[in-house]
Amino acid sequence: MVHREAEGTLLPYLQKAGVGFVPYFPLASGLLTGKYSAADGARFPRFTASQYAAIMTGLADVRDVAKAHDATVAQVILAWYLQNPAIMTVIPGARVPQQVTANVAALKITLSPAEYQQIDQAFSTFK
Fold it and tell me: What pLDDT score was predicted for residue 67?
């Protein structure tokens, strides 16, 4: 979601070859769970201040979608990955059993085409 360089060349090639893609760190080490705020940018030094601000703005859009689905931000992010035809599966990390249960609940979320596009656009600067 925040490292989308592969979408330009690698993912089309993999799709054409019939090979699935599994994203690495799909929740960006917890950043895409929605639990961090604009004040937490220093916790993620691999992102510039402007990139971090763009992520926070994108997550605001995801929060709106999550609210509509009575879901968490992380569940909606995972649902987005799962609805991406170029992605075979998603393996999010979990430290406690409740996180595993919450992650599995993402399977029950079906984003509308408009919601999928809204989220895709919110993070389009990372392509």
Answer: 98
Would you mind telling me the total number of residues written for the chain in this entry?
A: 127
d(CA 69, CA 118): 14
How much is the pTM?
0.93
Cα–Cα distance, 117 to 112 (Å, whole number) = 9
13 by Cβ neighbours in 10 Å (0-12 / 13-18 / 19+) ranks as exposed
Domains (range + CATH), the chain: 5-126 (3.20.20.100)
Residue 9 has pLDDT above 90, yes or no: no
Cα 89 to Cα 38: distance, rounded to the nearest angstrom: 30
Q: Are 76 and 59 in contact (CB under 8 A)?
A: no
Give the pLDDT mean for 23-38: 94
